[in-house]
Amino acid sequence: MSRIIYINGAYQPYEKASLHVEDRATLFADSVYEVIEIKEGKQVDSEAHLKRLCYSMSELSIEPDFSIRTLPFIIKEVIRRNRVKNGYVYLQISRGRAARDFIFPDPATTPTSLIIFARSKNPDILNDKARRGIKVITHPDIRWKRPDIKSTALIASVLARQAAKDSGADEAWLYNDKGFVTEGAASNAWIIDKNQHLITHPATSEILKGITRDGVMRLAKEFNLTYQQRPFTLEEAKQASEAFITAATNLVMPVTHIDDCPINNGQPGPVAQKLRSKFHEFAQLTA
Ligand code: PLP
Questions:
Q1: DSSP structural state of residue 151
Q2: Which of 93, 121, 149 is the last residue of a domain?
Q3: How far is the CA of 213 from the centre of ligand 1 (A)?
Q4: Is the model's pTM score more than 0.90?
Q5: Same domain membership, residue 278 and residue 254
Q6: Do 141 and 49 fall into the same domain?
Q7: In this structure, are 68 and 92 located in the same domain?
Q8: Rounded to whole angstroms, how far apart are CA atoms 238 and 156?
Q9: How far is the CA of 54 from the centre of ligand 1 (A)?
Q10: What is the 173 CA–ligand 1 centroid distance (Å)?
Q11: Which among 35, 187, 245 is the best mutation to test ligand 1's pocket, defined by most ligand atoms within 8 Å of the CB?
């Protein structure tokens, strides 16, 4: 079965789909994106993801030339055409194709470009990983100062993730000039202190306000767990009783080591495991 991608108004086989070389996504990373989990054919928290997509576009003054209300239908069709049961859907909107110039092209004559594709992922592999837990390294946060916008300007995150892989880890926790952990290269970072308080960086312009992060806060309320949105240091993280990351492609993923320092004796923590197992029960699933 040939995979199908939605690109600028048409469903096309991958081999035929192409983005113009002068698309501003290619030249300037002048584009935003979203990643939505697909669970048993259903979209997980897609409304919240599309809301954040609108936020990202609005912060960059990207004016889509299509109605956002059509996106759920296209997403559904992409999932159907690619027969994705479990996996994710990726959406990207750029300011469009125009002769290379830093100045925005006229939105009246330059349509935005829209790409949507979906990929299958075997949930057993991710669940096995969660049973083992992951290692994270720490890495300076050298990203631009607006990671709250989900833009495709991801080179700093790419370098951090690669550094993690090169050290035999799965994720990099980024720390700012003050020594506080902001978030992961592609996830939000959490610790649980000795008093069983969940702690994560506040949703300032220094982090992406994760949809899975919001889900964990809803879950915490359900289970009477207290959480604090405040910066935490690397030292505090290394003394935590548990640590985990959240992201649509990882859900709640226990962290067993931070820079070779074992957390919870190097084992996935019980609270993180519980949050993971209950996550979908409290998420919005859309057919
Ligand atoms: N922070 C960053 C930098 C990310 O790239 C991501 C996901 O890609 C997240 C946090 C988690 O966001 P979400 O839970 O919405 O996937």
A1: B
A2: 121
A3: 8
A4: yes
A5: yes
A6: no
A7: yes
A8: 24
A9: 16
A10: 12
A11: 187
Active site (catalytic) residues:
150
The string of DSSP codes covering 115-150 is: EEEEEE--HHHHHHHHHH-EEEEEEE--S-S-TTS-
Hey, is 38 helix, strand or coil?
Answer: strand
Q: How far apart are CA 278 and CA 125, in angstroms?
A: 18
Q: Tell which of 90, 121, 152 closes a domain.
A: 121
Cβ–Cβ < 8 Å for 185, 157: yes
| Rounded distance from Cα 208 to ligand 1 centre (Å) | 6
Beta strand 188-192 with 242-247 is antiparallel
State the residue range of the domain holding 11. 4-121
Residue 116 Cα to chain centre, angstroms? 16
Distance of CA 28 to the CA centre of its chain: 21
Q: Report residues whose beta carbon is within 6 angstroms of any ligand 1 atom.
A: 35, 147, 183, 186-188, 208, 210-213, 246-248
Q: Residue 141: what residue type?
A: D
Per-residue pLDDT of the chain (287 residues; tens, 9 = 90+): 689 999 999 999 999 999 999 999 999 999 999 999 999 999 999 999 999 999 999 999 999 999 999 999 999 999 999 999 999 999 999 999 999 999 999 999 999 999 999 999 999 999 999 999 999 999 999 999 999 999 999 999 999 999 999 999 999 999 999 999 999 999 999 999 999 999 999 999 999 999 999 999 999 999 999 999 999 999 999 999 999 999 999 999 999 999 999 999 999 999 999 999 999 999 999 99
Rounded Cα distance between 213 and 245, Å, is 9
CA–CA gap between residue 57 and residue 93 (Å, rounded): 8
Tallying the residues shown for the chain, one arrives at 287
**Residues 97, 28 share a domain:** yes
> For atom 4 of ligand 1, which residue has the closest CA?
186
Q: Which residue has the CA at smallest separation from atom 5 of ligand 1?
A: 186
51's tokens: 């809301």
